[in-house]
Amino acid sequence: MSNQIEIYTTTHCPYCVRAKELLKKKGQEYKEINVETEESLWQECVTRSGGRQTVPQIFINGTHVGGCDDLYAMDKDGKLNPLLGLGA
Description:
Blueprint: E1 5-9, H1 14-25, E2 31-34, H2 39-48, E3 57-60, E4 63-66, H3 68-76, H4 80-84
Parallel strand pairs: 1-2
Antiparallel strand pairs: 1-3, 3-4
């Protein structure tokens, strides 16, 4: 099963890079949405994330995971692999 992963980013964001690295390490493809150049994409990110105004904001199969720290915390707690449909 292929996951639908969307990650709202900006060009020079170290947290965005870290989040994408973890997803790549897990063999996951993602749709990167750069919010720098289009105000409508930024507004979409803020709305979908419940008002968060930082990047990255990550969505896996429509579920808002949060930012980079949230993604790494899920991985540390053993909750990311099940969400991605991966074994332990």
